[in-house]
């Protein structure tokens, strides 16, 4: 009888221990439009596994790729009701969370990776604070590379663009302003709808990184690419502050450190993937042509026009606008 009592007590203790472990475990459900099997998803899953192991099961990340949780607005709604704790967004997509997220989407503003490195050293910390001010925690930013205009039809000049059916990400005000400045009435759509819209002819022109064009299968529809950086694409993993701050300080540091390491790796992977994608797209017969000097200046003038509108309309926060102006002054000799 004594042995049975001891055995029962042991089972009770184990049950309590297991229940406590389950209750204390924090699960972050993260949605993204990124297709499964991409370098982005492989690295994200690896980060999740490392966090679970290093936290001894206290923190777990579950990812839902390929848009299975819906578009950006749907993901945001699910984050607000706690069905999801976060999402992985591009900068343009994340503008529904905080307006400063679109800072790297400014067209024809950053012209090289060196310029991006200078800008990010100054602007990334401000962007993290902007998310915090709006109730979110930015776990990390990964540079996806420069986006380029790509089309089913030749686009040699701003005049050619005026008759094109141009896609912009739904909710990306900066992208809408950019194409409006070029005399285009853009067509806003969720990223997940772009492939089908190229297929049906609803749109004939879009913008993406070169590796993104392959990942989303756009290369099967497009025939021409304008070889001039349009904007810089970033990937951002964002969770609600409420869910993140429920972690212990030690676990918060673990999560941030792991995502920082992951995104550092992704930066290098993305650079190589975009270089490889350029050759792959050429091999598919897609024309990648640089504009002449006059056209290049004409395209880049759009950047100045959009920056002036963003500044006048307050589409970025005052601290971000001030820092951006100083960065552009450093890079280009003026604040545009």
Order of helices and strands: HEHEHEHEHEHEHEHEEHHEHH
| Percent in helix | 40-55%
Total DSSP helices:
12
Number of strands: 10
Let me know the average pLDDT: 90
**CATH topology-level name:** D-Maltodextrin-Binding Protein, domain 2
Name the CATH homologous superfamily.
Bacterial extracellular solute-binding protein, family 7
Tell me the structural class. Answer: alpha/beta
Low-confidence stretches: 1-23
Rg (C-alpha, Å): 23 Å
Can you tell me the number of structural domains? 1
- Strand proportion, as a percent range, falls in 15-25%
Question: Based on the structure given, which CATH architecture is correct?
Answer: 3-Layer(aba) Sandwich
**Biggest sheet statistics:** 8 strands, mixed
CATH class: Alpha Beta
Envelope shape: globular
How far do the termini sit from each other?
85 Å
Protein described:
- With 336 residues, this protein is an alpha/beta fold.
- It has one domain (2-94, 103-326): D-Maltodextrin-Binding Protein, domain 2 (3-Layer(aba) Sandwich).
- It is 51% helix and 18% strand.
- Helix 2 (39-54) links the parallel strand 1 and strand 2 (59-64).
Name the descriptors:
alpha/beta; 8-stranded mixed β-sheet; two-stranded parallel ribbon; 10 strands; globular
